[in-house]
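User: Please fill in residues for this 1018-position structure.
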């Protein structure tokens, strides 16, 4: 089922909710005419604000690691305002006799501006370098509209590891930061939502301003996010962490109940969800009672007043806040909605319908339905009500309800994943009632809107499934259906890929170079565009007048300007490998065909639910079909094949006679319509999905040649059951390489060659440890690793020999390369090495840790290294790899199982789903760091018969100019044709990810030409 959203628990936001000026909200962005964008956020944590008419805003800029200034409106005189400001900043700002002020212990100039306008004094103070931002913010507050302007400041680094979202979450008021996190979660911006909740978790431990704030709400949100991604064990660990802290708070008790119920629903545990929702919780007390002339406040309100939190008096013009009782009422309404969902899934539509109607009524009873932050919850309730009415046969009623659900989100969440999900749910309903053409139109609009806004359909697979089914059915007679399928399939990002991209995007956001700056700028522009569209949609709901029409015209002009700046920013960002790795995007079919060569074809798979689809794309045409096998049967077939290649039994790795019959049958089931064509394609680029992420395509068997004789040998105790020299492997005639996406393949093909002057750098053979790990410092802190989630010392006890590194280097000539092995091969040495970009080929021969130490732990794919001092943890994690600066045509990972079977948690962290592997996460990291292509292993590289040494030696023994794919294929053929190594375990494990047509080796002259091309391309 689709992921269920948490409920944001804030009151109406923005001026419209207060009935004021519709053009200025409590948070807004400024400076979008230039490139240095800033966020202006209303704050109540300002010591200068004293009267009920006073207000303050904090200015947080994209490139600053802390707020750069404060804007205030004070109902007082100028002299009093100055005195209050000077008193509040005493000890923090130092002023000389010539009125020049600087920050304490710094040369940073500080400026203050105070102006009187009627009964109000308007003030701005902050860093002089950001004077443009302060001026624009002050004028925006004074004029009650966002004033256009350019902010000219020097680019500065983002301090520590905080990106813009984390800086914002740490700077603004705790309740506003929580609301911002919810807002991003509801609109589908999960990476930014994660930033807020993680930053709030840290802040709850470190910031005295959060004293009295219950931090479990942040942890609860992190748990729910893990559950929505299918990482149930880790979610369970986080839920248990929360529940270990007892509480009697009515809001927190209800949040725990609802989030636990959603967790159960995600696992299709309907009885467990119902039990959670029906668990007795103390009823809500009446807020205020009057008896015998005395007024009594309920304990919840008393607690709120004492803490200065949600229940305090609302100052004039300040954003209203929900009381604890109102928040609890909304959460109870969600509980009723969730119970209705359980009833529908159990097959009780009458009970489901009644529950949704009651839940809607309860939600709308709070503030007469003016709580804008529960718009998505209301939309979900309407969607569930529609499904219940559909089950009861009220098709017209269901149609109307779906329309209401979509309309609600169209105003508050335009062009977001949330709106796309609601529309997709409606389109799926239409397909169930023979309105395919109308549904197809809606689906196309969804794909177009998401593609244009660079969003994905992650988490929408079930709702999009009918679209793929309809397109596949029409593909034979309608070429446009093939094109539409190709585009839509690229937006169907696996949850694990989305999670990996979110982690790497946060890593990029925290950087200080030009790429990181542009990335933060693009993120801010996206948010500004969304807010402008929301404002336009809200204005459209008001009675129309000349003033409203003028406002809307201004907003549409602003949107056009922002969109132009965004396009310009993205164009500049595309030159940075790190961005290309994390950026969503798609190609049209013709764009992919244009980069395919005459002897190539692109074979793409897509698994949606239990359906398996495939496409074969060649320069002159494309074919789409639904495979003759379901996803569940595909998993079983792959498991059966892998179990005969490399499995661990009683602590030993074992290989059995190959399951050739299943490999032959699976080939026909997957690729039947093109089964005769594929062996004749010299270079096949394969984009796997589902279980095929765990199996190299080259070991599928294309014909029954030699099968009968092989089966006889397996049964004959005197024959060799590992002799497979006569088998018709796909990899015998075709040279497959792997693509993680069509866009990634195109980017790899178009990337300029490496400008490195040295050929080869080999790293590996870590130093073994004793029985205990060295101290790992602060790795147990929030956002790091729990002490129970650390690897034991045995992972460092089995170093891989450096022999293959020596073989590779010697194959090119000892002077052509360098080695880093033993005690010198540490994570700190790799991260601090300044010459990594000087090597065309970087080769790691070390173990890869791709599973989590325990199922409940977050997986962090990493390569094992030696330990290197106090700051070393003996691991090169995929985030650290992403931050390396390399310029390599090829990265080789002949590590232990870098592309092999892993736990589901490791799979999702690494970017692959369905019990897949860590290939994608490590590959994305190395490509983001500056690699073009990667060779990785699907299972531990074999030592028997010198298979790996022979394979690596043969690879580097290829002639100058030979492609990577041809070089690997030639050495694999030699192993295939050797009776001792003809089993796929010995030759099929290594996969090329990227562009296999690139040359493996280049002469000095060719390298110099590549440098010239690279300089021109950059």
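Assistant: Residues filled in for all 1018 positions:
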């Amino acid at each position: 089922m689709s992921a269920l959203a948490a409920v944001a628990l804030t009151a109406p936001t923005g001026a419209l909710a207060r009935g004021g000026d519709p053009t200025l909200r409590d948070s807004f962005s400024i400076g979008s005419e230039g490139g240095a964008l800033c966020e202006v956020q209303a704050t109540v944590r300002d010591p200068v604000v004293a009267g009920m008419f006073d207000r303050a805003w904090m200015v947080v800029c994209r490139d600053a690691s802390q707020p750069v200034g404060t804007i205030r409106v004070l109902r007082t005189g100028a002299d009093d305002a100055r005195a209050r400001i000077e008193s509040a900043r005493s000890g923090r700002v130092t002023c000389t006799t010539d009125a020049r002020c600087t920050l304490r212990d710094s040369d940073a100039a500080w400026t203050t501006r105070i102006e009187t306008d009627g009964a109000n004094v308007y003030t701005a103070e902050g860093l002089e370098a950001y004077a443009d931002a302060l001026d624009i913010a002050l004028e925006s507050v004074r004029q009650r509209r966002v004033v256009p302007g350019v902010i000219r400041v020097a680019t500065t680094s983002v301090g520590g590891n905080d990106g813009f979202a984390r800086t914002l979450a740490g700077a603004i008021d705790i309740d506003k930061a929580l609301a911002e996190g919810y807002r991003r979660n509801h609109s589908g911006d999960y990476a930014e939502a994660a930033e807020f909740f993680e930053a709030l978790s840290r802040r709850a431990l470190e910031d005295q301003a959060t004293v009295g704030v219950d931090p479990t709400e942040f942890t609860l949100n992190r748990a729910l996010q893990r559950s929505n991604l299918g990482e149930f064990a880790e979610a369970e660990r986080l839920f248990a962490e929360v529940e270990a802290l007892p509480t009697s708070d009515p809001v927190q008790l209800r949040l725990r109940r609802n989030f636990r119920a959603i967790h159960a629903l995600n696992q299709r545990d309907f009885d467990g969800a119902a039990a959670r929702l029906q668990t007795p919780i103390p009823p809500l007390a009446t807020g205020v009672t009057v008896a015998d002339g005395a007024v009594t406040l309920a304990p919840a309100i008393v607690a709120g007043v004492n803490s200065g939190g949600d229940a305090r008096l609302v100052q004039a013009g300040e954003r209203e806040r929900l009381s604890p009782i109102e928040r609890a009422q909304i959460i109870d309404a969600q509980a009723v909605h969730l119970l209705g969902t359980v009833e529908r899934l159990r097959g009780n539509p009458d009970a489901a319908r009644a529950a949704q109607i009651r839940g809607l009524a309860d939600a709308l009873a709070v503030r007469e339905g003016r709580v804008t932050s529960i718009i998505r919850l209301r939309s979900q309730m309407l969607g569930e009500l529609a499904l219940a009415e559909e089950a009861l046969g009220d098709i017209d009623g269901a149609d109307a309800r779906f329309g209401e659900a979509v309309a609600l989100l169209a105003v508050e969440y335009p062009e977001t994943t949330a709106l796309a999900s609601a529309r997709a749910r409606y389109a799926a309903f239409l397909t169930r009632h023979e309105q395919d053409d109308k549904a197809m139109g809606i689906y196309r609009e969804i794909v177009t809107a998401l593609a244009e806004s660079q969003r994905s359909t992650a988490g929408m697979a079930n709702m999009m499934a009918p679209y793929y089914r309809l397109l596949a059915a029409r593909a034979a007679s309608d070429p446009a259906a093939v094109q539409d399928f190709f585009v839509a399939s690229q937006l169907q990002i696996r949850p694990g890929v989305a999670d990996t991209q979110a982690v790497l995007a946060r890593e990029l956001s925290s950087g200080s170079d030009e790429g990181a700056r542009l990335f933060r700028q693009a993120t801010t522009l996206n948010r500004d565009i969304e807010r402008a569209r929301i404002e336009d949609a809200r204005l459209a709901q008001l009675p129309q007048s000349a003033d409203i029409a003028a406002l809307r015209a201004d907003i549409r002009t602003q949107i056009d300007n922002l969109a132009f700046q965004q396009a310009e920013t993205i164009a500049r960002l595309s030159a940075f490998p790190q961005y290309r790795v994390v950026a969503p995007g798609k190609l049209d079919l013709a764009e992919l065909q244009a980069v395919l060569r005459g002897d190539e074809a692109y074979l793409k798979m897509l698994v949606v639910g239990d359906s398996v689809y495939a496409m074969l794309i060649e320069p002159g045409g494309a074919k789409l079909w639904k495979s003759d096998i379901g996803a569940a049967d595909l998993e079983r077939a792959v498991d059966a094949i892998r179990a005969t290649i490399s499995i661990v039994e009683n602590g030993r790795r074992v290989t059995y006679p190959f399951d050739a019959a299943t490999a032959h049958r699976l080939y026909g089931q997957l690729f039947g319509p093109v089964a005769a064509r594929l062996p004749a394609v010299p270079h096949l680029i394969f984009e796997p999905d589902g279980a095929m992420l765990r199996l190299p395509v080259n070991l599928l068997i294309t014909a029954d040649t030699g099968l009968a004789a092989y089966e006889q040998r397996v049964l004959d105790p005197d024959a060799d059951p590992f002799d497979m020299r006569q088998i018709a492997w796909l990899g015998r005639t075709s040279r497959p390489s792997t693509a993680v996406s069509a866009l990634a393949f195109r980017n790899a093909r178009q990337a300029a060659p490496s400008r490195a002057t040295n050929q080869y750098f080999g790293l590996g053979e870590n130093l073994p440890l004793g029985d205990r790990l060295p101290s790992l410092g602060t790795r147990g802190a929030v956002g790091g690793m729990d002490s129970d989630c650390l690897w034991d010392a045995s992972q460092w006890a089995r170093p891989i020999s450096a022999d293959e590194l020596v073989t590779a280097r010697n194959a090119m000539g000892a002077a052509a390369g360098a080695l880093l092995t033993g005690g010198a091969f540490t994570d700190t040495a790799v991260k601090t090495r300044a010459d990594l970009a000087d090597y065309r080929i970087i080769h790691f021969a070390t173990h890869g840790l791709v599973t989590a130490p325990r199922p409940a732990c977050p997986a962090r794919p990493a390569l094992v290294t030696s330990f290197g001092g106090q700051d070393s943890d003996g691991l090169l994690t995929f985030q650290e790899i992403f931050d390396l600066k390399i310029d390599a045509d090829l990265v080789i990972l002949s590590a232990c199982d870098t592309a092999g079977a892993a736990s589901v948690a490791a799979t999702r962290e690494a970017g692959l789903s369905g019990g897949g592997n860590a290939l994608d996460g490590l590959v994305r990291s190395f490509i983001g760091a500056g690699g073009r292509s990667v060779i990785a292993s699907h299972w531990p590289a074999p030592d028997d018969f010198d298979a790996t040494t022979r394979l690596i030696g043969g690879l580097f023994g290829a002639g100058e100019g030979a492609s990577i794919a041809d070089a690997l294929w030639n050495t694999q053929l030699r192993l295939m044709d050797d009776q001792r190594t003809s089993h796929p375990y010995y030759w099929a494990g290594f996969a090329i990810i990227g562009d296999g047509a690139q040359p493996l080796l280049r002469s000095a002259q060719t390298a110099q030409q590549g440098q010239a091309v690279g300089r021109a391309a950059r």
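For context: Residues 421 and 460 are 6 Å apart (CA to CA).
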